[in-house]
Amino acid sequence: MSSFRTLDDLESELGSVAGKVALLRVDLNLPMHEGSVTDATRIRASAPTILELADAGAKVLLLAHFGRPKGQRSSTLSVSMTLDAVEDVLGREVMFVPEVGGPVVAQSVGILGNGDIAMLENTRFWPGEEANDPEFAAFIAENGDFYVNDAFSAAHRAHASTEGLAHLLPSFAGHAMESELKALETALDRPEKPVAAVVGGAKVSSKLAVLEHLVGKVDHLIIGGGMANTFLAARGVDVGASLCEHDLRDTANRIMDVADHAGCTVHLPYDVVVATEFAANPPSVRTCNVHEVARNEMILDIGAAAAETLGDVLKTCRTLVWNGPLGAFETEPFDAATVALARTAAALTAEGSLVSVAGGGDTVAALNHAGASDDFTYISTAGGAFLEWMEGKTLPGVAALRT
Fold this sequence. Notes:
Blueprint: H1 10-14, E1 21-25, E2 32-33, E3 36-37, H2 41-55, E4 59-63, H3 83-90, E5 94-97, H4 102-111, E6 117-120, H5 127-130, H6 134-141, E7 146-149, E8 171-173, H7 175-189, E9 195-199, H8 208-214, E10 220-223, H9 225-234, H10 249-262, E11 265-267, E12 271-275, E13 286-289, E14 298-302, H11 304-315, E15 319-323, H12 336-350, E16 355-359, H13 361-369, E17 378-380, H14 384-390, H15 396-399
Parallel strand pairs: 1-4, 1-7, 4-6, 5-6, 7-8, 9-10, 9-15, 10-11, 15-16, 16-17
Antiparallel strand pairs: 2-3, 12-13, 12-14
Helix pairs in contact: 2-3, 9-10, 11-12
């Protein structure tokens, strides 16, 4: 983390920030239902950064996108939809400004007192945002004195507000961004070995780059979800009516060969939970050996014996990276393996023997469902950015903050 300026460096770099204008990139792309925010997790993540800057006397201008307006103004995609939720979390009044630059923002800055907070309009209302247009970045930057990025979840996008601004103003990582970067460096860049990775989800095709990168980085690769079926099929297992990408069997075999040469053990289930229909607690549900799946049955979870063995694997590891559920966890009883392994990982973390980092929307939901989230070392709310980091890609919004 020494290569990133953080809020701890603000005073030495800029002196007092009282009266200075902070352009603060946050994530306000929040889930909504009937006009109200249903999950304020991302606001809570950035609240410490927002409040520290405000309490130090800065005029804080929040920059964020909301939805995909594709460079056009849309009343239903204004970030002002999130204003009430932001004020609730911060416990402060927040001014809404319907622009991101120019005289309207300049006038608003003049109205704001030291320590006040304003929310600028959806950056994606302007085509220059997603194009990372230098002129648009300069248009935003002219009203700011320094830039803080606290939106790791948008760091995989090279946009004006996530990357361009960092080249125009003194730039710093906010507390949420700093925590994310530290956790990710600890988990894969400089992990304590042995390292295990759990990769689940429906399709191998969506996580091919992740799997290819991880086999050279980790000691144990645990594959679950629908993608495990593709790997089982590649090993000659008849997976019946299960979700399976049969055209990727050669790819799955190549990944397992690369893993073998890299000294990475790939763990596939040997007992599975199957049913003839995908529904909650169907009468046809049973647990069987992978070689006993009937033609009309679907594999919907890892079996209890395999889940227990995977728990034993985690007990030998010092670091865990997790992305994706082991089964169709949203529907009982196909949540059992995910819940069991998550609770094992949480217990090992709580006792201090495991560093556990997880990320991705489904993963967060699955760990919350298991009641395991609070004991994980770090849970990222980022989706695409977390996946691209697992693929070993350079994230533009992070690279731009490097000193």
